[in-house]
Each structure stands twice: as structure tokens, then as C-alpha cells.
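Inputs:
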Amino acid sequence: MKKIQKQNTTNPFESLSEELIFTILDFLEEPNNNNNSQQTKKSFSLSCKWFHALESKHRRALRPLRAEHLPSILARYSSIQTIDLSLCPRVNDTSLSMIAEAYKETLTRIDLSRSRFFTGSGLLSIAASCLNLVELDLSNATELRDAAMVGVARAGNLERLWLNRCKLVTDMGIGCVAVGCRKLKLISLKWCVGVADLGVDLIAIKCKDLRTLDLSYLPITEKCLSSIFKLQHLEDLVLEGCFGIGDDSLSNEVFKQGCKTLKKLDISGCHNVSHTGLSRLTSISRCVEQLVLADGSPVTLALVDSLNKLSMLQSIIFDGCTITCDGLKAIGNLCISLKELSLSKCVGVTDEALSFLVSKHRDLRKLDITCCRKITDVSIASITNSCRSLTSLKMESCTLVSSEAYILIGQKCHFLEELDLTDNEIDDEGLESISRCSRLSSLKLGICLNITDRGVAYVGMCCSKLKELDLYRCTEVTDLGISAIAFGCHGLEMINTAYCTNITDRALFCLSKCENLQTLEIRGCHLVTSIGLASISMNCKQLNRLDIKKCYNIDDSGMIPLAHFSQNLRQINLSYSSVTDVGLLSLAGISCLQNFTLLHLQGVAPQGLAAALLACGGLTKAKLHVKIRSLLPEILIRHVEARGCVFEWRDKVFQAELDPKCWKLQLEDVMQ
Amino acid sequence: MNPTGSLCANNWARSSSLVPPGSGLPTNLSSDPSSFYGIGIEMPFKEINEPARTQSVIPGESNEDIKITDQETSKLQDWDPSAMLNNLLFLEEKIHQLQEVVHLIANKKCQPFEQPRELVTQEQQLVTADLTSIIVQLISTAGSLLPSVRNSLTDTSPLVGQLSQLRGINLPFGTGTSNGVQPQNNVGNKLFDQSIHKDVPNNCEMEQNHNMEEHEHKDEEDMEEGENLPPGSYEILQLEKEEILAPHTHFCTICGKGFKRDANLRMHMRGHGDEYKTPAALAKPHKETGSEPKLIKRYSCPYGGCKRNKDHKKFQPLKTILCVKNHYKRTHCDKSYTCSRCHTKKFSVIADLKTHEKHCGKDKWLCSCGTTFSRKDKLFGHIALFQGHTPAIPLEDNKGLAEPPDRCVTNENSAMVGSMNFSFGSNPSNENGVDNIMDVKGNIDDPINYFSSLNFEGCNFGAFNEFSQPSFEDSEGSFSFLMPSSFNYAPKSGGESCSDNL
């Protein structure tokens, strides 16, 4: 009787066709990378068995939390194309061969950049079974040797391969990859210090389709350059920190033809390349649009002259170079219109030269003059006058610029989306003016000691698109300012109010209205209590980074709601807080938790810590005080390490909080 | 004689005796291990043999003659190579000069006769004279350079040999004048050809036969022992086993202390008194014992049945005491020195170990096709050049990669080649290296001695460094040519163990 009844009660949803539901699910996916969509899909699949089955069928991308769950995950989802294992610190060969077995036909991308404990045989099984594999990220696999590359080389259809920091891989391994993966379009060998000319040369000879080649910090010389410059499709070449490449190697006539397609060239940190070498490079690759010359040789007239041949140039990065006045003026005289210019930390940038430069490049969109300590209001005036279409202005620590100059920025540059005013003399009037930039999404006001609630309130009222706000050590800002922000900027994702010591729970109550809040730093806000944090945890479900260091009033009662509601929390800093074993253990309930810092936690006993370490299965990094090490059983440490967690043992002395003004003075002392 | 060693040698004997006589020489060449070693020492034999067989007797290009003799020089230790080289250079120069003159005459010949008759004859005389001098030079050089010819001549009838040499010199004078007016292209070569035609063919033929018989042995000898002294032309000495293996050969007559070298002994002797400090006492002893040794000394191995033993019917003497020592240790002693790098290869002569260790492990740059390179850039150049070749990762490095064997074999023609490839730790490729292996297999089609299967079993599949494990004794001989220059010492020890035919 019962059976019949069951059969009769059919699911009304089952009448919906598969295609229809798939289309709906496709729409759900659209806000990319948003955890929201994941949540929605989860709820969707939990509504009924039919939906559950359909969602499993529909799913294309996976980001598993634990490698242990892989068997059940693989059984559920049948047609996965992308697997991101960056949340699984421990991925062994068995897991990889299971994945290979499950997604023979479908798998196209796999990310192993944060995982360890797999070897060449696991990679071999993936490469040999998944014939459609196109993308493989093996960055940080510092234990892989050439033998593993033999496995990788079996993936004949591979197009994108990252091997950053694979330090033990040598030319031989890269040679295997070059021969095996002929369709490579992107290969990144950053920090593969075992790879030299021969390996790179072979890559360039065998993989003719290469578009992107990252050779940062490789011990290469000119020997491989001629093959590289013969690549017909190369667009992006990064030679950062290749000290073996110098003027001598570039001056020879071996490579007469350059890449006609090269769009981005990065030779930052190549100290041995001066203007002669650069002019050689620019004369053979004339289509370069973006040039990165950071930390290189001094920017002189001669060097800038060598850029004259680049008719397509749009962006130059000079970060950290010494710049002469003539050089800077010559940039102004280039017959092109730059869109992006970075002079961050450049020594020698003067008002006169910078004013001349910006007057010629009126179409600048991004300008970075961080730490150009000589510039004053004059420069800002000419920047605001000439470059009305600026979208990004970074001018951290331009300390000679007076507060009046910021009014100009607000008046002239209405298109600003990103503004970094960290450590400047801006005051409330300046902020009031800047609040006119209604497109602002990122505003950094760290260590601007002159701003108060009034200025911040203007921003809150006008900049509704704000996503990032940094108020680090803005000591005058109180709950009022924060509440204005919280009411005005609903899309806020990141807020830093570290050491804004006047902030209380009330600010957190307000901030809890920002549902998208992902990062909250309230370090040193000692008035904040567990109640404030609880309201954040209950409402901001997306929270994934939390810093409550030196919030002495936050204790276990704050941790319990956090553990219960903020299931997306990845990173937490609990140092100096009043959290005890109970709170710590409750945190273990957050399955995403990867990274915690626990220094000088008076209430945490070694047993509690040990239990928490055991319970947090997904930990990848734990920062602990070195004194605790001896109190923890060695076996436990080894066990946790074997799961993929890295311990950082710190030996910091207990610091009493300084007076905020006193801190600034101390900092200035250090700098002088 | 250990049976395993002889088994291997039998391979050779059988393989070469099985081939049809018609194609004897070419097959010998292809199965000739030395050709894999890449050492050109044995090559001159072929180059001499082949022309002799095909009756093309010293090819038209005179330069080639020089090349042959040039290589011959390196083979002979008892001739002064530098003097020989001078001689050859002179010859070359002379021939070039002559070529120019003949060219000139040939060009003039094309034009209608308008030069005075006198001039033509003058030129002809000049050419003839030049030719004569070249021929004389060449024959005297060649006579001294080609010991095999000379030896086999003296072997049968020393007088004939002498005579032929004399005639070789004389003949051109006689025929030269008459031939001088022949069509003048290639005058010099033709002349020379004919003179050889008349005299040498028999000798060449004979020598070839001799070579055919001993081919497989000769190739495997140490390079300095390739000489072909006629029996009786030297004094045979045979040391006892104990003498050979003794750590010291020179002993102080006063205190009894032993030394490896007599120079060391002489240095030591100085301590025993002033009479040992005189220049005479310190001088090399045999220098004063007359500058003209009557009979060359050659050595015999005391091991019965060894080809280096004087009772063997194809006895090949050893040249020096050092040769005796090395031969005896390599062939008849245990291999007690193990390579400290690969821990698998063993040697009985410490120098061999050192040579191997120098190149063992990291110095080996291996391609998937089986070719090894002493330098990494050479390997990468090779890989850049060929499609499908890939660097082979050495096995110590390859431990983590336990590839299921079936996956590797799938693409292969036969499981044998598959496992061979796998032993290189690399992708399958049917290029040069593998072809070579197939060739060798093809030649040795005797099912009993189907050595490759035997060897692979002994090798545990895929252990690149296990060639020399216990099964080493029987695998080494065949592997040393399967794996060209995979260990540098191979030409010597590998060859010898093979050659020790009972």
C-alpha cells in the first residue's frame, strides 16, 4: 500500500526538461567566481533528488575542500572539466589517478599549484588518461624532478603550463616537456633555477605556438634568445631578473628578426641591460605595447630615446629606477600617447619634469607615483589639469603634497576608480572633494592622520561603488564614519580599520549590513567585543579573512557564532585576543579554514591547540610562537605537517600597544 | 674459461659463419661491434679489403690513397708517425702540383695543335718525371706503412716481398715512358693503378682471406695489439700467474722492498748508498743495453686455452708486460672494483674503474633513441634536430615514476623493443638507435642464442644501470654494442670477454 502511494507522489519538478534546468543553471553561474553562485547551486541541488542529480550532471568546475572527499565527489559529478585543487594541501598520486580515471574524456584543466605530496606517477596518470588536458598548474611543486616532467610530457594537447618554483626541474625535464607538449601556448618557468639556455632553447624550437613565455629569474644567457625571437606568435615575454642577459648578449647580430607579434616585454631587474641593449631589443620588436623596465638601469635620455621606435607603446613601468630629469622629459617627447605610466619608487622624479611629461600624455589612464618624495602640489596640479581621464592614481607617501592639492583631484579627475593616498597630508576638505569621484571602488587612506569622521562620511555618502576602503591607523575615525560608509557603500568587500582605536561594536553592527564583506581587519581596535564580531559573522556570510589581533575584548563567545555562520572563513589572526581553547576548538568547525595565526594567546593551552590543529583538517599554514613548539608532541607536529600544513614558528616578544601618535613618530625616526 | 663468456663469443662465431659467403664482408661489417664503438682503428682493414675484393684497386682519387695510408699510420706504433706525416704531406703536395700541370696540358690538348712538338714532349717528360718520383715515394712509404702486406709477403716468401717492393719502384720507370703518351687525363692514377694491378693483387687477396678468418677476433683486440707479426719473428715470453698478479714487480736487492715501477726502485736505491746515486745507476736500465734489439719481445698469457696463450692455434701475442697484466686481470680474474656511483659496474683493473667513474652517472646525456652524449648541449642539439626524440631521464632520478609496463609496450612492434625503450626511461621511438638494435637481432637469427631475450630477463626490465649486475658476465658482451658507448671502457673489456674463444 505504502509503495503505491510513494510511486504516485511524483515530483512536480521532474516535468521540467533537463535542457530548461541546464539553461537556468547556466544563468546561475554567470556572476563569475562569486561564492554566491556556489551557495545558490548548493541550495538548488538540495531541494530534491531530481535537482540534485541534474546539478551533478551540469557541474563543470570543481574546487574540492579536501582530497579525502574526492572518491564521493568523483562519483557524484560526471562531466567535470576544471578541477581546482588549491584548497587541498595534500593531494597524493592515488587522488590524481582517481581523477584521471573518472574524467578521462572531459578534464581540461587542473590546478595543483597549492598542493603537495604528489609525484611524477600521479601526473603521468593524469597526462596519459586525460587526453583533452589543456591547462596544468604545477607551480610551487618544489619537490618535482625531471622524472615528473616525463609524465607531464605525455599530455600532448597541453596548451598552458605553469611550473613556477619547480626548482629541481632541469633542462632535461624541460626538454621532455618541449618534445612532448608541442601545442604549448603558455609556459611559465619562473624561478625554475635548474633550467638554463639549453632547456629554454629547446622549448622555443619545439613549441612553435608559444604566445606567453615567462623566464623570470632563470640563469639564461643570450644563447637561447635567438630561438625565442624566432617564435612566430610570441606576445608576452617576461625576462625579469635574468642577470645573464646583458648588452653584450643583445648586441650580437644573431637574432636579426624580432617577434613581430610581441606585445609585452618585461626586462625588469635586468641590471646588465642598458640603453644599448634596450635599443637593440626595441629595434627588433617594434609592436611592443607594454614595457616593464622596473629595477633596471637608470632612465636617461639615451634610454628613453631607444623607445622611440616603439610606435604601439601604451604602457611603461619604471618602478624602482633612478630617473634623470632629461629622461623624464624625453618620455614626454615620445611620439606616442601613453595610457599607463608607473614611476613608483623612482628616485629623481621632479615637479618640473613630471609636469612636462603629463602635459604631453593627456590620455593617461593609470599613473603610479608612489614614493616620489620630491613632488609637490605643482605636479598634482598639472596631473589633474592634463590627465582628466585618469582611472587609477597611486601616490602613496608623496609627503610634500599639501592638503589643498587633493581638492584638485576631486575637482578634475572624475573617472577615478582607484586612488591610493596612503600616508599623505589629505584632510576632510580633500576627502569631500574626492567624494565627487563617484566611480571610486578602491580608496586607500592608511596613515592619513588628518582625516576625521566628517571626511569619511562624505565618501560614504557619494561613493556608492566603493569596494575597498583602507583606514589603517586613521585614529580620528570613529563609529560615525564607519556607519556612514556601511550605509552608503553596500558593495563593500574589504575594510581595514586597524588601529582606529575609537571604533566600537557599533561600527561592526553597521558593517554587518554589507553582505559582500570578505575581508575585515580590526586589528588593535580594543573596544570591539565579541558581540560586534558575532553580528558580523551572522550577517556577512562571505567573510573569508578576519584579523582581530589585539582585540583584547574578543573571546570565545565571539568565536562560536563565527564558527557557526562564517563557513567561508579562510584566514584568521587571533593573536593577543582573549580566545581560549574552547573558542579555538569551535573554529575547527569551519571547514574552509586554511590559515591561522596564534601568537601570545594567553588562554590557549597546548592541549587545546593540539586538538584544534588536529580538528582543522584543511589547515595549510599555522603561525605559532616558537615557545609552543616544545610543548606540542613531535608526532602531532609531524602528523599535521604530513597533512600538508606548514608551521611558521615565530619568536616575537610580547608587545604592549603604543600610543598612535607616538607610533608615527617612531616610524619617521626609522625612515630618517 | 668460464662458459658464459664463451657463449657470447660463440654468438659471434656463429653469426659470422651463418651468413652466406657471398655477402660475407658486408654482414661482418654490420655485426661488427667495433663499428658501434666509433673507433676508427679497425676501419683501415675494411677500406683496404674492400677495394681489393672489388678489384677497383686503389680508387682513382689519389687523395684517397693518402687517406688510407694516413689511417694506417695511427695503427703502427713502431713507425715514427711524424716522419710519416711529413712524407705524406710531401706526397700530397706533389700530387696537387702534378694535377695542375696535367690540367694545363689537358686544356691545351683541347685546342688545335699549334704548339711546337718540342714543348709537348718537354711537358710530357716533366709529368713523367714527377710521376715517377711520386710513385717511388708512395711505394716506399706504403711499403713501410702497410705491415700486413709486408708481413704476409715475408710470411710466404720474403724474397718475393722484397722483389715486389723493388719492382714497385722499378716498374714505373719502365712503363712510365710508354704510358706517358697515353690520353693524359688521370695519367698518374692510371699508371699507379696498373703497377699495383700487376704486383699486389695476389697479396691483397691472400690478406683478405686471412682477414676473413680472423675477422671477429681481430676486431676485438686491444688497439695496440692489432699488429700482425709473423710467428717466429719475435721472442715469446710467458710470465707466471703469480708474477702477473704480484703487486710489485721490482724489488730492492738490499732490503727487499717492492715497487711497481723500476724508476721508483731506483729512487729508493739512492738511500742505500752513494754508489746508487751516480747518473749511470739512475739512468733507465735498458737504454744502455745496446741500441739494436735483435728480436722483438712479445708476451703470452699463462691461461691455457686463451687466445693470448702461445699454444692457441690462432695465437695473438701481447705486446708489453702491462698488456699482459691488464689482459690477465680483465679476462681471467674476478671483477672486484665496483663503481662507487652506479654500484653496479665492476672492474678488475682499477684504471678501468677510474675511467668509468669519470663518465658514470651525470656525465651521461642520454636520448630516448639510445644515443648517448658526453655533453648536454650535444644531446640538446640532437633532440632539436630530430622529431620525436626526447631526453631520457637517468633512472636514479626516475624512481618515483613507476610506469605500468603495458602502457609502454602498446606502441611497440615487439615487447622486446618496448622493454628496451623503457630501460631508457623514455618514450617509444623507432629511430636510429632502435633500428640498430633490430639490425643486430636480424643478423643473429640462431634461436638458441637469441641473446636479447636472455639479456633482458637478466636485466630486470628497465634498469638502465643493471646491465652489469650478476648477469653481467653474459650480458656485457652483447650489450656493449647494443648500447653504443654507454660505457666508455666497453671497447676494451667488453671486446675481450667476447673474444676469449675457447
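The interface with chain B takes residues 119-121, 124, 128, 145-151, 153, 171-173, 175-176, 179-180, 198-199, 201-202, 205-206 of chain A (CB under 8 Å). Flag for discussion at group meeting.
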